[in-house]
Amino acid sequence: MTLADLALLLDAPVQALRGPRPKEHVWHVSVRNAPGDRLLADAEWAEVAAGMVHAAGIAEHGDEQACRWVAVRHAGDHVHIAATFARQDGRHPRVRGDIPAMHTAARAFEARWGLTPMSPLDRTARRRPVTGEAEKAARRGLAETARESLQRTVRTAAALAHGDTDFLDRLRDAGVRVRELRDDDGTLLGYAVALPGDRADRGSRPVWFAGSTLAYDLSLPRVRERYEPLATPAGWALAEHRIREAAGLLGRAGQDEGAGAALGDLLAVAAAHAPALVRPASRRRPTPSSRPPAPPAPAPWKAEHGPAGAPRPAPWNTPRARPGVAAPRWR
To answer: What are phi and psi of 295, to 5 degrees?
Structure first.
C-alpha cells in the first residue's frame, strides 16, 4: 500500500459526513517514552495507541463505526497517531477533553509497565496573557492586561454568587460587558466577558473572552460548582480544630524558634494539599516568623472538583504533542 492509498482510506469518511465538513479534519498526536525508559515492543506500542484513541473518544474499543486512525512508529521511543476527524457512519465524532483523558491513560501505562511517571496535567493553572495582550496594555498605559483584569473580576463574582443570574448580575455591576450563550429553551450554556473600551479590528468590535479561555476554573460548569460548596460546615470546623491542635502542639514544644519553623512547614504543607481553587491564595499567606503565630481563623473557602479541560482536536500544523508513555508532554 502506498502512502497516497492510505491517505485516501483515512479521509474517505469525510465525504460521508452528514452536515458540513470540517476545514481541518486531521487529529494528530505523538506518544513518547521518557528518556531512560526501556524501549517498548511493537505489541506494547500498539496497545498504547489503541488506548490513546479510546481515551480521546476517537475510536472507543468495540466501536466499529468510529473514526479511522493509524499509528506510525519510525523511531524506537515514540509513535505518531493520526486520525480522520469523521466517523465511518457519517456522523461527527464527539471528542471533548481528549488531552486530559489521554494523560489519565498515560498514568495507567506508566504504573503497569514501571515507566517513568510524568507530572499530571494541570488543568487549573492560571492562563497568562499572550505577548500581544501585554503590548496592548503597555501602549494604553494600563497596569495589567484585559485578561488579568477580567480574571480577577470574574473570579470574585464567581466566589460570591449563589446562582447563574446572581453571577451575571455581579459581572455587570462590576462594569463588565457580558454576552450570554443560551439554547433554544433559554438554558444558559456559557458566557463571555469584555472590558468596556477594549476593542479589536481598529475599534470595530469588542474583545470577548469566554470563561474557559480566561482560566480553566472559570468556565460555566466550574463556576456553578462554587454555588454549592462541597465542604460542609462540619468539615471546615474539623479542619480548623486540627490546625489549632497542631499549632498548640508545636507551641508547647518549648523551643520557640524550632516551633515557629515547624509551624511554617505545617502551613506550607497544608497549602500544597489544599483544593486547587484555594491553593494559590494559601501559598500567598505570610510566612510565620520565628515565633509561632496565632492559630489561623477558619477560611470561608469552597472546595472544587477538578475541572475538565476541553482542548479541540489538532490539525497537522499544530505544535506536536510529546507524551511520555505514555505521558503526554505537550510542547
So the answer is: -60, 140
Q: What residue has cell string 438554558?
A: 187
pLDDT of residue 71: 94
Strand partners, 194: 177
User: What does DSSP say about strands 205-206 and 199-200: parallel, antiparallel, or unpaired?
Assistant: antiparallel
| Residue 12 near residue 72, CB atoms below 8 Å | no
Do residues 311 and 90 make contact, with C-beta atoms less than 8 angstroms apart? Answer: no
Give yes or no for residue 193 having a pLDDT over 90. yes
**pLDDT tens, residue by residue, 101-115:** 898 899 899 999 999
Residue 159: CB atoms within 10 Å: 16
Question: What pLDDT sits at residue 274?
Answer: 67
Q: How far is CA 22 from CA 37, 63, 129, 285, 324, in A?
A: 38, 22, 29, 48, 30
- The pLDDT of residue 259: 58
**Measuring CA to CA, which residue among 72, 79, 71, 77 is closest to residue 39?**
77
Name the percent of the chain lying above pLDDT 70: 70
Q: What are phi and psi of 70, to 5 degrees?
A: -145, 145
Per-residue pLDDT at 263 exceeds 80: no
Q: Under a CB-based contact definition with an 8 Å cutoff, are residues 101 and 57 in contact?
A: yes
Single out the residue of 325, 321, 312, 242 nearest to residue 94, CA to CA. Answer: 312
Paired residues of 181 in beta bridges: 190
* Residue 184 neighbours by CB distance under 10 Å: 5
Distance CA 51, CA 264 (A): 44
